[in-house]
């Protein structure tokens, strides 16, 4: 009984081993027939005998072929024919990660277990390499990224009429291998070359061959051809180069014709503010229609000087309290808006991040009334041109990335466009066209940065396309900053304001009494804050008082302005102290606004390896 049991066990073991071998999906034979034409293109027929067992190969196989080599398209590709077991088979082409993936098979049909023959015929352009002393085909026959073992790999290469192979080298193994475990044979008097791997190729191993033949057989491209090839091979780079140059030139011409401001010319110092120009309006004119936080602080200080409010400081917290004085209708619009807001508030306005909502509401009201009242009286922003510049920049960035990321997942195209929500939200909340245009520029910068990162990670960006993405937001920023045009009225006021600003920067506050000097200091301080020279202005005031005290012409008793409640200051220290206090108040407001949530290397002379040259890719089952 022992013998039959042992015999049965041995038979079962043999059967299981055979089943295991049979169940191993593989490529039993990979035969490639390659014909080189007179223009350097290839007609390729690949015949694959595949063992399918319903594991990875359920509906058919797929073949990956690279579209690019080092970021350059290596030639036009045309799928001519695909068959399975001699009959036409459904194909589907997918572009991804710089490759094209050709699916052979029907997703509604399951391939029966056993051996099946797939045949793929395709044409590719410009595969012959033109070197100094010879031309050559350097071709990765099988590719090095197959998910299956290849039992037998071979290729027969037919050279153009009149060409004779002068040298052949064939490489096998994984990518980068210089092993030459292959059989090579020159046939038909040198017009045909046959190469075959000596043994089976394991997963991610391939067969690559390099064949040299004399020059003059294949037509070498002319200079014009090379230029046209460059356009075809590097579409993203060409769009980036010429698109950026054209956009930059167009915006430069628009700036020259529509918005080039002439210099202000000679500026004369003036010791008094321009007539009818409030501190906030002075800042508005000087900033070409921009309203800053310091302008609102200056307007608030001016209300204090005029007796309408009292400003109190407690460490880093500020409060603005209404006095009983009423507006007689002579206040500038910005100051009147602040006063109205405080009246409606019916309690002191606390300036701190904890009260951010109320401070932001006041800033919105203040900015709105300034823009509504003065608009573009002093400066024409050309917001329409700024908006069009942003649209042009986005359009060009999309065009660059559409080519660079061809075949990549749509998320890489769409996700960087999400910052477009910024200008859209600005428009929805009632922002001006200029606001929307500037937000569009900010969104462009964010999107270009995202595309730059995604493109680099995907290996899809060339030097020029990457430089183009960097240049687009820079071009927009320069154009947006320069396109505005100052009106004649604005120009006259700018000259006066600049003269007064320079006076405040180095003023010697004259006055026979300390009281008069302080009065001038209080009157001019809001202008110094609005024009950004409060520190220099306070220093000049202190110097004047120090000189006066050294001569014994003024007393040194403690003095506080009635509109400011805070740290006591005496003598010459008041100027610097109140200047620092006003700067701190501006910083407090800022805190409220920011807090919250072709040719190439040879296959010979040590330059060849498995996986090198054109062709390549790999494949698998699906």
Automatic annotation (TrEMBL):
Pfam families registered for this protein in UniProt: DUF2207, DUF2207_C
Residues in DUF2207 domain copies: 26-187
KW Ribosomal protein (keyword) present: no
InterPro entries hit by this protein: DUF2207, Sortase_SrtB_target, YciQ-like_C
Annotated signal sequence range: 1-23
Positions of region (Disordered): 602-622
Transmembrane segments: 238-255, 385-404, 410-429, 436-457, 463-485
Keywords: Membrane, Signal, Transmembrane, Transmembrane helix
Keyword Transmembrane helix in annotation: yes
Domain Predicted membrane protein YciQ-like C-terminal residue range list: 272-539
NCBIfam families according to UniProt: srtB_target
Protein name: DUF2207 domain-containing protein
Source organism (scientific name): Pseudooceanicola marinus
């Amino acid at each position: 009984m022992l013998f039959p049991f042992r015999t049965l066990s041995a038979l079962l073991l043999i059967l299981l081993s055979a089943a295991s071998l049979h169940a191993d999906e593989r490529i039993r034979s990979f035969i490639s027939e390659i014909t080189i034409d007179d223009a350097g293109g290839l007609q390729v027929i690949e015949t694959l005998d595949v063992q399918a067992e319903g594991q990875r190969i359920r509906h058919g196989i797929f073949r990956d072929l690279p579209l690019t080599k080092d970021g350059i398209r290596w030639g036009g590709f045309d799928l001519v024919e695909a068959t399975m077991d001699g009959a036409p088979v459904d194909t589907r082409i997918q572009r991804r990660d710089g490759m094209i993936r050709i699916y052979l098979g029907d997703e509604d049909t399951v391939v029966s277990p056993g051996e099946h023959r797939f045949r793929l015929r395709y044409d590719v352009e410009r595969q012959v390499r033109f070197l100094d002393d010879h031309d050559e085909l350097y071709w990765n026959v099988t590719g090095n990224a197959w998910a299956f073992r290849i039992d037998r790999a071979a290729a027969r290469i037919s050279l153009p009429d009149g060409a004779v192979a002068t040298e052949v080298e064939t490489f096998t193994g994984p990518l980068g291998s210089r092993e030459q475990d292959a059989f090579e044979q020159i046939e038909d008097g040198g017009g045909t070359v046959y190469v075959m791997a000596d043994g089976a190729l394991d997963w991610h191993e391939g067969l690559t061959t390099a064949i040299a033949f004399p020059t003059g057989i294949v037509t070498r491209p002319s200079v014009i051809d090379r230029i046209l090839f460059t356009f075809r091979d590097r579409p993203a780079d060409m769009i980036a180069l010429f698109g950026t140059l054209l956009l930059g030139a167009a915006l430069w011409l628009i700036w020259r014709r529509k918005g080039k401001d002439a210099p202000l010319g000679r500026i004369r110092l003036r010791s008094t503010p321009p007539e009818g120009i409030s501190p906030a309006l002075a800042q508005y004119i000087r900033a070409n229609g921009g309203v800053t936080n310091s302008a609102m602080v200056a307007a608030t200080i001016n209300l204090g000087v005029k007796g309408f409010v009292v400003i109190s400081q407690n460490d880093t917290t500020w409060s603005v309290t209404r006095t009983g004085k009423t507006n007689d209708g002579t206040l500038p619009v910005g100051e009147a808006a602040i006063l109205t807001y405080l009246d409606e508030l019916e309690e002191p306005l606390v300036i701190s991040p904890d009260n951010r909502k109320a401070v932001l509401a006041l800033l919105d009201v203040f900015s709105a009334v300034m823009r509504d009242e003065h608009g573009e009286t002093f400066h024409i922003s050309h917001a329409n041109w700024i908006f069009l510049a942003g649209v042009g920049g986005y359009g060009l960035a999309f065009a660059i990335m559409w080519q660079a990321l061809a075949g990549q997942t749509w998320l890489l195209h769409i996700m960087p466009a999400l910052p477009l929500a910024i200008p859209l939200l600005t428009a929805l909340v009632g922002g001006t066209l200029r606001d929307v245009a500037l937000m569009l520029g900010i969104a462009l910068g964010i999107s270009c940065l995202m595309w730059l990162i995604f493109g680099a990670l995907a290996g899809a960006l060339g030097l020029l396309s990457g430089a183009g993405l960097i240049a687009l937001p820079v071009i927009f920023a320069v154009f947006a900053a320069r396109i505005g045009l100052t009106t004649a009225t604005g120009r006259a006021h700018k000259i006066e304001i600049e003269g007064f600003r320079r006076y405040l920067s180095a003023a010697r506050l004259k006055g026979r009494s300390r009281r008069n000097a302080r009065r001038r200091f209080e009157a001019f301080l809001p202008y110094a804050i609005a024009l950004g020279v409060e520190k220099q202005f306070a220093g000049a005031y202190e110097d004047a008082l120090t000189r006066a005290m050294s001569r014994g012409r003024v007393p040194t008793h403690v003095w506080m302005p009635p509109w400011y409640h805070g740290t006591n200051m005496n003598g010459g220290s008041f100027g610097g102290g109140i200047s620092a206090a006003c700067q701190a108040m501006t910083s407090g407001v800022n805190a409220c606004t920011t807090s919250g949530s072709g040719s190439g290397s040879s296959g010979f002379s040590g330059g060849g390896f498995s996986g090198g040259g054109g062709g390549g890719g790999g494949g698998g089952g699906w």
